[in-house]
Specification:
The protein is α+β, with helices and mostly antiparallel strands and 215 residues long. The protein is 28% helix and 33% strand. It has one domain: Pnp Oxidase, Chain A, CATH 2.30.110. The radius of gyration is 20 Å and the shape is globular.
Length: 215
Amino acid sequence: MNQFVADLRQNYTLGDLSKTNVESNPIRQFKLWFEQAVEADIIEPNAMTLATATPDGKPTARIVLLKGFDERGFVFYTNYQSLKGQQAIANPQAALVFFWDRLERQIRIEGQIKKVSPEESDSYFNSRPLGSQIGAWTSNQSEVIPNREFLQLKQQQIAEKYQKQEKITRPDYWGGFLVVPNIIEFWQGRPNRLHDRLIYRLQPDNSWIIERLSP
């Protein structure tokens, strides 16, 4: 074992978390913490780990960007034919993790995943910079390619194709996913590894209960 890695430790001291100082609704609590993460100048506070799995349970995880949230859940966009897109469609369960080191906070989310409406995907696609729109047409995400030049040539061809058009339409294989949560856990680092963990669990009547977990 690498002892240097084993000896890496951080003692967390910035805050605490209790049932008396959180919102009763986890989406409102997420909004509060997310706004504080933005104010703390964290680089890409909307970066989150997305975990999906094959139908037989083989997991895969990667970082994606949150692009919206509301009472329905949490939205990100991708190529539906990518690995994560295929897994999300074949096994519609997902997990998200946010970690904001400056605030010594983590949020863990579990729930069902489904496509957003074509209209919602169109609206977001139309708001993207031109280069990002061209990129969506250029990349067959997760497919093997021979080299970077192959991708650059295809990007150039796509750009030339659309240069005389006022609007680039969204590819039908590209769009949004909504993670509909049934569990949201808020973690606040505390001294001596006695961290605060509050978990919200969705009930059959769509209300939420809050429980404290042992660290």
